[in-house]
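Hi support team,

I've been running sequence recovery on a batch of backbones for a student project. Most finish fine, but this one hangs at about 90% for roughly twenty minutes before it completes. I'm not sure whether the input is malformed or the queue is just slow. I've pasted the structure tokens below so you can try to reproduce it. Let me know if you need the job ID as well.

Thanks,
M.K.
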């Protein structure tokens, strides 16, 4: 089995840039982020610039840009402009490119929102998480519900016509009624896109430590499932398409950058811990700020992990990514890309999942049923 998946089309990149600064570490967060000194911040931005400038992919057209973190909205206007100028000098940007910035509502003000727009950013993702102050405090967020509402207004006033709101459900002591109120409030603002995530408690986070000490309430899986189903129903009634397990949008407002990940297309990540997928090789930059600061200026960013995905492993990975999407998987298209009979290879798994009504099949296409979305991890395991 060999893959034709990365040779047929001219390369167009998704670019991800990681800004690891945050004023305060949220209790559930396992991203590489946190408070840093001014000196560390300056040296990080210098190293980041050098990593971009030294990229072997210089001159490649860019399909999408995503500034994530951490808190990219912690950047000053000058820092943001410098970063955007560097990116545009090194890569080929078109005018219509989707350019997203993640923003912590506690950091936004009118001048900053205007600076985002002036830099060419045309999509903003607001980390709202909840419209209830007691839940925001439980999560360790720096913002209040009113700041979340204000951030949305500021983004609209600055001219953003493509706004995503991130919300989390399954929070400690969160009731179904509170989640319903969050959903209605979010939809009432009329964003183009919603990302609705189930809280997971990761080892190494504050919540993870509390759980290990027996200080966290057990997650009520049934209640979380009810919340997820409620999210699917309320967003559908309001005209949002669920185009991926956790993502909902107005028609034609899918996040082009996320689609690159789910469709296994090439992307480059810059910054500490940033992941790349180029030429069939998946790699991740070092997670150490100190090491990144030492190696990136010399054009030698150490890859903490580097793996060439081939054969069955590559196919399994692609299925796991694509099965999350509304369009699901065309077995014929995958067979062509991987030069093998995918339907025959996974016939036992597909039959089992059809029997359990976790997937449905139309012609050669399989996709998750409603029940399958609730048990997506179990579905994915069948293809590993
Ligand atoms: S603001 Fe985001 S990246 Fe920063 S600590 Fe909180 S969840 Fe993590």
């Amino acid at each position: 089995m060999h893959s034709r998946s990365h040779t047929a089309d001219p390369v167009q990149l998704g670019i991800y840039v990681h800004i690891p600064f945050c004023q305060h570490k949220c209790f559930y967060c396992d991203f590489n982020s946190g408070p840093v000194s001014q000196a560390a911040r300056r040296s990080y931005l210098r190293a980041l610039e050098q990593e971009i400038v030294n990229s072997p992919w210089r001159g490649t057209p860019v399909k999408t840009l995503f500034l994530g973190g951490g808190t990219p909205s912690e950047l000053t206007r000058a820092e943001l402009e410098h970063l955007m100028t560097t990116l545009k000098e090194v890569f080929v940007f078109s005018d219509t490119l989707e350019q997203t910035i993640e923003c912590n509502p506690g950091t936004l003000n009118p001048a900053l929102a205007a600076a985002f727009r002036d830099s060419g950013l045309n999509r903003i993702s607001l980390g709202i998480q909840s419209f209830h102050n007691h839940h925001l405090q439980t999560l360790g967020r720096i913002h209040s519900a009113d700041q979340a509402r204000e951030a949305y207004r500021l983004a609209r006033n600055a001219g953003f016509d493509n706004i995503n709101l991130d919300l989390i459900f399954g929070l400690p002591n969160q009731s179904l009624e509170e989640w319903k109120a969050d959903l209605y409030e979010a939809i009432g603002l009329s964003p183009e896109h919603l990302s609705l995530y189930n809280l997971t408690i990761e080892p190494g986070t504050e919540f993870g430590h509390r759980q290990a000490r027996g200080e966290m309430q057990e997650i009520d899986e049934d209640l979380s499932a009810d919340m997820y189903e409620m999210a699917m129903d309320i967003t559908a009634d309001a005209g949002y398409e669920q185009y991926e397990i956790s993502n909902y949008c107005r028609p034609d407002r899918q996040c082009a950058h996320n689609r690159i990940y789910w469709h296994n297309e090439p992307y480059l990540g810059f910054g500490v811990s940033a992941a790349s997928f180029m030429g069939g090789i998946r790699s991740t930059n070092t997670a150490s700020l100190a090491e990144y600061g030492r190696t990136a200026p010399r054009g030698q960013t150490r890859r903490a992990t580097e793996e060439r995905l081939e054969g069955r492993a590559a196919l399994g990975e692609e299925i796991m990514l694509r099965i999350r999407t509304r369009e699901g998987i065309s077995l014929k298209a995958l067979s062509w890309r991987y030069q093998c009979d995918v339907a025959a290879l996974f016939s036992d798994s597909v039959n089992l999942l059809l029997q359990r009504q976790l997937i449905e099949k139309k012609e050669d296409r399989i996709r998750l049923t409603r029940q399958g979305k609730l048990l997506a991890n179990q579905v994915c395991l069948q293809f590993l």
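--
Follow-up from support: It reproduced on our side and the slowdown came from queue contention, not your input. The pocket of iron/sulfur cluster is lined by residues 22, 25-26, 29, 31, 33, 69-71, 104, 127 (CB under 6 Å). No action needed from you.
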